[in-house]
Amino acid sequence: MLVSILIVLLILVVILLAVIRQKDFVIENVPKLTVTSPAFEANGTIPVEYTGNGKDISPELHLSELDERAVSLAIIMDDIDHPLAGVYNHWLIWNLPVRDTIPAEIPQGEQVAALNNAVQGMGYGKHRYRGPKPPFGRHRYKYHVFVLDKTLALPASSRKKELLTAMEGNILQYGHLVGEYGK
Questions:
Q1: In angstroms, how far is the first alpha carbon of the chain from the final one?
Q2: Out of 28, 44, 55, 181, which residue is the most buried by the measure of CB atoms under 10 Å away?
Q3: Is the pTM of this model over 0.85?
Q4: Which residues contact 181 (CB under 8 A, 6 or more apart)?
Q5: How many Cβ atoms from other residues are within 10 Å of residue 42's Cβ?
Q6: Which residues of the chain have pLDDT under 70?
Q7: What is the arrangement of strands in the sheet containing 101-102, beginning at the earlier edge strand?
């Protein structure tokens, strides 16, 4: 009897996880932005330096053909292969100044003075870049970059959902870079 109850509970947990698993979002009908990095190639391996097993620093990102109407930039970095969550957010930063190179090693904190007080939201429960560090296997990590037509009035306590909502209707361009990391 106890085994039957445990099996039913396990099935219910699996169904619940399948329902609440986050999916990677899709940005459609927006001009493409090319995102590259000198640290790793698209779909290549993210060097240890940029992971939780290394220095845990953000990689440099290069952006091509920025829209001349751009006012600010935003970045979301997600683990898109998380075994339980589906997609797990690691980093949020917005109100970055418009530039074709996002520097590496963006310092932690709610605001980044060196980047015109860009705001880091609550990704991975922290106001900072939190690099890849999967518990097992290889995971893909997606660096989403948004070119916006305004700055965003969001508090640093904001999470990914609030950032995506605030950007709606204000995205001039979108691009991403995917890298892998794991054992």
A1: 40
A2: 181
A3: yes
A4: 45, 46, 51, 131, 132, 133, 134, 138, 139, 141
A5: 12
A6: 6, 8-22
A7: 34-36, 61-64, 101-102
Residue 81 φ then ψ, to 5°: -125, 25
Domains and CATH numbers, the chain: 29-182 (3.90.280.10)
Query: In whole angstroms, what is the distance from residue 171 CA to residue 73 CA?
Result: 9
Backbone angles phi, psi at 162, to 5 degrees: -65, -40
Instruction: State the pLDDT at residue 17.
Output: 44
Question: What is residue 113's DSSP assignment?
Answer: G
Distance, CA of 143 to chain centre: 5
Starting at the earlier edge strand, list the strands of the sheet with 171-182. 44-45, 171-182, 138-148, 72-82, 86-96, 118-120, 111-112
Residue 108 tokens read as: 């932690």
pLDDT in tens, 63-80: 999 999 999 999 999 999
Written as one letter, the residue type at 167 is: M
Count CA within 13 A, CB hemisphere, residue 153. Answer: 0
Q: 3-state SS of the chain: helix, strand, coil percent to 5?
A: 20, 35, 45
Query: What does the alpha-carbon distance between residue 179 and residue 1 come to, in Å, rounded to a whole number?
Result: 47
CA atoms within 13 A of residue 157's CA, in its CB half-sphere: 0
